[in-house]
């Protein structure tokens, strides 16, 4: 269990670091959106590339922070029902949800998205809009984002199992409480 908890801490650090880096993409999206609006309304000109860049930044924020959101326990939950259960029952429900909902969904999307990214990269797919951007970077975000979500799911699974086994005192903690 020690090795699994070490892996969990490493995954947590990875997603925490990515989440904190992606915060800066929020600022970039705001700046791009603001400059695009000012240029569009003051100079009566615009570019599809700027609009697509906004979409790419939003996609990066949403997809790359999915694992970070799970780490921070900020994802949508069924707390109205599960919140009434004991911590052990909540942890068991989390284990069930990770194994039978999160993993199948995230692994399936990751696997289906990879060939779409690969085809886009190999063919140098471009936006069909005039002045648009190359498409593969946006398509790469899907498998990468779902990979980060999947590995964070693994970390959460490890933490819940450790809690249920009595190795840790908290369901979401990867730190040892018993030796």
Description:
This protein has 179 residues and is mainly α. The chain is built from six helices and no strands. The protein has helices spanning 2-43, 48-64, 66-71, 79-82, 87-122, 136-164. The longest helix is centred in the N-terminal third of the chain and has 42 residues, at 2-43. The protein is elongated, with a radius of gyration of 20 Å. The mean pLDDT is 92.
Mean pLDDT metric: 92
Structural class: mainly alpha
Compute the number of structural domains.
1
* Count of β-strands: 0
* Helical percentage: over 70%
Number of helices: 6
Low-pLDDT windows of residues: none
Tell the overall outline.
elongated
- Strand content bin: under 5%
User: Oligomer, anyone?
Assistant: single chain
Give the biggest sheet. Answer: none
Radius of gyration: 20 Å
Gap between N and C termini: 11 Å
Element pattern in H and E: HHHHHH
């Amino acid at each position: 269990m020690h090795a699994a908890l070490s892996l969990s801490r490493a995954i947590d650090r990875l997603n925490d670091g990515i989440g904190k880096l992606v915060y800066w993409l929020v600022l970039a999206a705001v700046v791009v959106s603001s400059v695009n609006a000012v240029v569009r309304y003051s100079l009566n000109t615009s570019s599809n590339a700027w609009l697509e860049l906004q979409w790419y930044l939003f996609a990066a924020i949403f997809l790359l922070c999915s694992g970070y959101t799970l780490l921070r326990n900020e994802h949508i939950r069924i707390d109205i029902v599960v919140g009434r259960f004991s911590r052990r029952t909540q942890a068991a429900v989390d284990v069930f949800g990770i194994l039978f909902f999160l993993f199948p969904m995230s692994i399936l999307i990751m696997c289906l998205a990879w060939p779409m990214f690969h085809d886009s990269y190999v063919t140098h797919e471009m936006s069909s809009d005039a002045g648009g951007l190359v498409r593969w970077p946006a398509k790469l975000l899907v498998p990468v984002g779902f990979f980060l979500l999947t590995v964070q799911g693994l970390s959460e699974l490890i933490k819940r199992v450790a809690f249920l086994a009595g190795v840790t005192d908290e369901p979401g903690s990867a730190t040892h409480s018993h030796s």
